[in-house]
Structures are given as structure tokens and as C-alpha cells.
């Protein structure tokens, strides 16, 4: 699989990358719709259609900074070849399917990053890693849920103060409507950040095969294909994870759902603008915990939250290990 690829094999690898994009959308559909479903503002199937639409149109709003980070900022673009891309995708897809089956809201983003790191280490060693890009992404593992937590907590307190004299029914009615806006913004941020990761993978594969010339960029057809794949995956839904995200961490009201989605959306918008590939799962989980803790600390099921955090910690090492094994297997049998 080294060197130049015949066209059918190149197309097959791009198809695998798009399959990851669809699985990513399916796995992370819960991030976009868990709150609006759990507060019963929208039925699940209407909610996924709503989220899929905003996932798809995200390319109209954001640049391609995250795609450039994934394409050239995790492992050196010069060492990328078909084996490495295949191994990275297999590691990420395997981990996504395992965590989806058990209903664990792990990070598709960090699964892909772990796959790239594992493939790069298996091929070249530590010199393959772009440490500045990996450090920025690793910092976001901690900062994105904390930011989502803090923003959601602040929003809940602000809303509680602003509507202190309103009736519970009136507040509920306002924020049931408001959740349409907040869920739209979160889905937009999700599509803007997550779909770009697959764009970066496909673009660096094309670059490694000489299809982009001497300068790395993301072709428009890759943008459209990845946004469509993300939207399709969201339509397929991720019901196991919706249950965990929407009800097992804390019980949500429309006000809390609005604050969680808005806090998460602001975090994603900032990260996408800065070109940082953050985890939408981490972000919305932090925001949901934030609104639960604003009510009372005991309002959060910390045992569930602890299990989710543990999944975050082991995602990159596990996907890196799977990716490295896949890379070595391609050398043995390829």
C-alpha cells in the first residue's frame, strides 16, 4: 500500500474515511439532540432531522481551520501514506463502534487523533508527531469540558436571576421555544468542528498522492461529501448514547437544556474559529454537568460522569494501540 495508489484503492480509502464520518455523525448525534429530546421539546426523529440539517450547512459558516490542523498538525504530512490513513481510520472506527455499542459517549475526535498518532508512531516513531498541534489538542481535552461547564453554569445563574419573578410555566414556555435556537447553534458548531476532521484526513491522503499539487488545501467536493456524511450519520441517530447524555447524568428542564446547549455552542464556535479539534462529546457533557451542578451538586449522577471521564482518558491510548496494530498488520499481509 506504500507509494502511489491505483485509483480504485484511493477511492476505497476515501470511502472508508466517509464511512468514519457517517459513524461519527451517528455516534455524536446524541451531542446535538440529547438535551432537546430529554426535555421533550422535540421527539427524537424530528430532533435528528433538525440536527442533521444544521450539521450539513455548517460549511457555510466556518472556515477550514480544523481540517488544516488534522491534515498537517497532528502527524507530519510528509510521512502520511495509505497505510497510515487506513490504520488511523480502523482504530477510530473500531473504538467508535465499541463505545457506541456500550452507550459510552466517548470522543470521535480524539479517537481519530489517537489513530493518527498510533499510525505515525508505528511507521516512524516519535519524530512523526507534530508536538505543538498534539499539545494544543490535548489541552482542549481538559479545557473544552471546563469551558462548557463554566459557561452553562453562568448562563443558568443569569437566567435564574433574570426570570426570578416569572412563573415557572411562563419560563418553561419561553425556553422550550429557545431550545430550538440553542440546539440549532450547537448542531452548527458540531458540524463545523467534527466534519472538518474527516476533511483533513481525505485532503492529506490526496496530498500524499500528489492530487493537490505542492500546497495542502481542502477541495470543495471533499467539504460537501464530509458535511453530507455527517448529516447522514446524524439522521441514523445514536439512541443508546442519547439515553446516557439526556437523562443518566442529570434530569434536565428546558431552561437547563437551553443553557447547556448555548454554553456548548459558544465553546465549539470559539474552538472551531481557532482551528482546535475539540470533542463535542466532552463539551456538551461538561455543559450538562454544569447546569446540573447549578441546581445542586447532588443533582449530578457523579458515578455516570466518572465513567464518561474514564472513557475520555483511555480513548487516545486505545485508538493509538489499535491503529498501530492495524499498521503493522498491513505490513505483514499487504
TrEMBL record:
Record keyword Transport present: yes
One GO location term (cellular component): membrane
GO BP terms: phosphate ion transmembrane transport
KW Transmembrane helix (keyword) present: yes
Compartments it resides in: Membrane
Molecular function (Gene Ontology), one example: phosphate transmembrane transporter activity
Domain of life: Bacteria
Pfam families reported for this sequence: PHO4
Membrane topology annotation: Multi-pass membrane protein
InterPro entries from the UniProt entry: Phos_transporter
Keywords in alphabetical order: Membrane, Transmembrane, Transmembrane helix, Transport
PANTHER family in alphabetical order: PHOSPHATE TRANSPORTER (PTHR11101)
Protein name as annotated: Anion permease
Protein source organism: Pseudorhodoplanes sinuspersici
Lineage: Bacteria, Pseudomonadati, Pseudomonadota, Alphaproteobacteria, Hyphomicrobiales
Amino acid at each position: 500500500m506504500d507509494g502511489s495508489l491505483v485509483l480504485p484503492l484511493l477511492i476505497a480509502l476515501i470511502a472508508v474515511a466517509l464511512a468514519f464520518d457517517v459513524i461519527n455523525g451517528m455516534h455524536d448525534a446524541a451531542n446535538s439532540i440529547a438535551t432537546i429530546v430529554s426535555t421533550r421539546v422535540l421527539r427524537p426523529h424530528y430532533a435528528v432531522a433538525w440536527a442533521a440539517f444544521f450539521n450539513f450547512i455548517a460549511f457555510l459558516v466556518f472556515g477550514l481551520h480544523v481540517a488544516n490542523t488534522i491534515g498537517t498538525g497532528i502527524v507530519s504530512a510528509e510521512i502520511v501514506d495509505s497505510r497510515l490513513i487506513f490504520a488511523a481510520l480502523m482504530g477510530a472506527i473500531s473504538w467508535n463502534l465499541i463505545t457506541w455499542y456500550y452507550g459510552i459517549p466517548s470522543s470521535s475526535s480524539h479517537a481519530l487523533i489517537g489513530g493518527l498518532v498510533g499510525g505515525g508512531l508505528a511507521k516512524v516513531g516519535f519524530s512523526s508527531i507534530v508536538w505543538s498541534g498534539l499539545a494544543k489538542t490535548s489541552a482542549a481535552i481538559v479545557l473544552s469540558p471546563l469551558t462548557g461547564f463554566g459557561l452553562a453554569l453562568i448562563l443558568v445563574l443569569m437566567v435564574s436571576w433574570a426570570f426570578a419573578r416569572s412563573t415557572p410555566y411562563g419560563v418553561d414556555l419561553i425556553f422550550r421555544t429557545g431550545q430550538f435556537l440553542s440546539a440549532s447553534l450547537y448542531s452548527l458548531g458540531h458540524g463545523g468542528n467534527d466534519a472538518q476532521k474527516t476533511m483533513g484526513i481525505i485532503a492529506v491522503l490526496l496530498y500524499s498522492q500528489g492530487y493537490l499539487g505542492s500546497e495542502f488545501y481542502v477541495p470543495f467536493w471533499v467539504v460537501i461529501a464530509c458535511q453530507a456524511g455527517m448529516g447522514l450519520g446524524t439522521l441514523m441517530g445514536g439512541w443508546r448514547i442519547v439515553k446516557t447524555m439526556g437523562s443518566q447524568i442529570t434530569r434536565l428542564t428546558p431552561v437547563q437544556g437551553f443553557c447547556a446547549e448555548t454554553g456548548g455552542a459558544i465553546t465549539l464556535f470559539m474552538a472551531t474559529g481557532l482551528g482546535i479539534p475539540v470533542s463535542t462529546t466532552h463539551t456538551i457533557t461538561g455543559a450538562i454537568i454544569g447546569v446540573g451542578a447549578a441546581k445542586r451538586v447532588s443533582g449530578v449522577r457523579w458515578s455516570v460522569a466518572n465513567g464518561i471521564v474514564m472513557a475520555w482518558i483511555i480513548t487516545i491510548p486505545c485508538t493509538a494501540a489499535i491503529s498501530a496494530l492495524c499498521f503493522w498488520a498491513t505490513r505483514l499481509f499487504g
